[in-house]
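Write out the bound-state structure for zinc ion.
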Amino acid sequence: MFTAHTLVHHQLCKHEDTFHVTEEEQEEALTFQWWAAPILIGINMIPWALLAWSQSGSGLPWFAAMWTVGVVVLFYYFAYEGFHYLMHKPSIPWIERRGFFKFIKNHHRLHHVYMGKNFNVVCPLADVLLGTMVLADPLPAKVTEPNARQVARRHSRWGRRLRDDAEGRTSTTVEPLGVEEVAAPPER
Ligand SMILES: [Zn+2]
Ligand SMILES: [Zn+2]
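---
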């Protein structure tokens, strides 16, 4: 999950010029892998499950409360995936016109420029509480350096496919690139 998010998604979508997905390659890691949903939801449920367990003898409707929390977490997860996808790949205009969406999109755009800020995609309030909120970029928009794509390709399925093609091991429909372009850039 870390690899997909930081080393692929953040490299392929970095600054203003690459924030919107325009190439098929950038779509990789735009959403979490399918198995991330049960894991992330499960982790979020642990404290609530413990709380429910500690209250199980008290006659409170803990089981119903657990279900409610579970549904909220699930809803949040899909809101995150859906909104995040739309931010990078506009496709539902009536949602994208909303002021709320524009606000969280700008919030997330800044997260891509400043990876240590604006962690929360759906609920910027969490960043206010964490002290990681930024509202504007004081610097002029930067251009994504070509090296970013090389970093992503070292970790992405797309990159692996290119390497396989270059070595002639598989035949896929991906356009092969020159070997020198596929080779890992020197470590800095
Ligand atoms: Zn993103
Ligand atoms: Zn991120």
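---
The pocket of zinc ion (ligand 1) is lined by residues 9, 13, 84, 88, 108, 112 (CB under 6 Å).
The mean pLDDT is 88.
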